[in-house]
Each structure stands twice: as C-alpha cells, then as structure tokens.
Amino acid sequence: MKHMKSDPPDLMPVLSRGKHRTARSGGCFMEFASYLAGESWSDHPNCTHPLLASLARMVNDCTSDGARSQLVPLIPDVIGLVSDDPHVGILVALRSATFALPVAAAERQRALAVGILACERALTEIDGEVRPSARTLIENAFHEAPDTERWAREFISSVGSWARTGFTHRTADAIVLLAVQGIARACVPDADDRLRELLTAAIADFNAAAPRIERPVTPVWATV
C-alpha cells in the first residue's frame, strides 16, 4: 500500500459532510476510500469511477448525521470500480433517476423522467437497443409515475435537437444530483435508507457491467 500523506484515522471512520484537509479532522465517504486504496487523501480518488464517486459524495452529504455511519461498510466496495466502458456512467445515472422518480416531489419528477429518457437514448445509441435489465428499471419507474413519461416524451419531441446532444459526464452528474436531492427531500420516513440502498444498487450495477480491478488490503476499521 502506498504511503499516505495524512495521518490514518483512529479505528472507525467518522463520516461527515464536505471536504476535509486530513483524516484527523474527519472525512467523507470518498476521502476514506482514497485512504483505503492507498492514495493521497482526496474526495476525488482514482480508485473509483468519477460518476460513482460523485454519487457516493452526494449520498454522504445528503444522509442525516445520525444515519451516515451506516454507509461505512460500503466504502471498500467502491474501490477498484473503474472502467472506460461508456455503459457504466449511464447505468449509474439511470439507476439514480429510476430509484428517485417514484418518491421525488412533483416538480422534480418531470426532470427525472427526462433524465431517464436521456439514459435510454444513450444506451440505444451504443447498443442499438436497451438491455433487458435497464429496460426493466425504466419500465418499473414509469409504471409508478406514468404521467411523467408521457410529459417527458412530449417535451423531448418538442425540443428536437436539444434532446439529441451527446450524453456527457455533466449530463449524468446533473441527473445523479437531482435524484439524490429528490430522495433526500422526499416526504418519506426512510430517506436515509433509500439513499444507502441507491448507492448499494449502483455499486452492484457497476460490478455487473465491468470487472473490478484487484482491491488493496482492507484495514480492520473498514469492516467493523
């Protein structure tokens, strides 16, 4: 394992919002992932795909202080999840949008529906069709909010060329942010649980789509 530029945490990491200069002052989900991977202390480490890391940071920041420690067991699971496969970023965005659509407030649902259709179009452009697992996510989400699908398809049709611009990392990041905030601010009693389940599902999707790079040795505190 590479030498760390900051002091290691004491036993169990204490997750908190935002960026931190060193481990001694606490850290966010991805900062502890950087430590675990043997990288320099950073919330943007190389050990995790940028969009999956972005989702993890957002979930970390939007989870309540009382529930954030429940994210700790997931930290080792994001290490080694890196890939140049264009599918993986789209799948992270799609999982986020479809997960949030049924519970998000009405003003967010339409934007999430547009995001889902943008993911659908991007996957179709790569493969010529949407794979069954992704198609199931889309169909299940729109089954919960059918009016949003109808509105989103009419909206995309009306704007024409806008809908045909490339699916970029910025597009995906915006979808993920909208989804995480939609869950965190939803009128549901289990928002923290839903955020953790979203991150867990996105990690599973990534593992299924791209092979994991060999993981480093895991310190004891990460599996407590």
Structural overview:
- The protein has 224 residues and is mainly alpha-helical.
- The protein is 54% helix and 0% strand.
- It is built from 8 helices and no strands.
- The radius of gyration is 18 Å and the shape is globular.
What is the gyration radius calculated from CA atoms? 18 Å
Tell me the span between the first and last alpha carbons: 20 Å
Write down the domain tally. Answer: 2
The major β-sheet equals: none
Number of strands: 0
Fraction in helix: 40-55%
User: What's the SSE pattern?
Assistant: HHHHHHHH
- The helix/strand class is mainly alpha
What's the overall average pLDDT, rounded? 87
**Uncertain residue ranges:** 1-10, 220-224
Strand content: under 5%
Approximate shape: globular
- The total count of helices amounts to 8
Short note summarizing the structure:
The chain is mostly helical and about 220 residues long. The chain has helices spanning about 30-35, 50-60, 85-100, 105-125, 130-145, 145-160, 170-185, 190-210. It has eight helices and no strands.
Looking at this protein, list some descriptive labels:
mainly alpha; 8 helices; disordered N terminus; 224 residues
Secondary structure topology:
Elements: H1 29-36, H2 50-62, H3 86-100, H4 106-127, H5 132-144, H6 146-159, H7 169-184, H8 191-209
Helix pairs in contact: 2-3, 2-7, 2-8, 3-4, 3-5, 3-7, 3-8, 4-5, 4-6, 4-7, 5-6
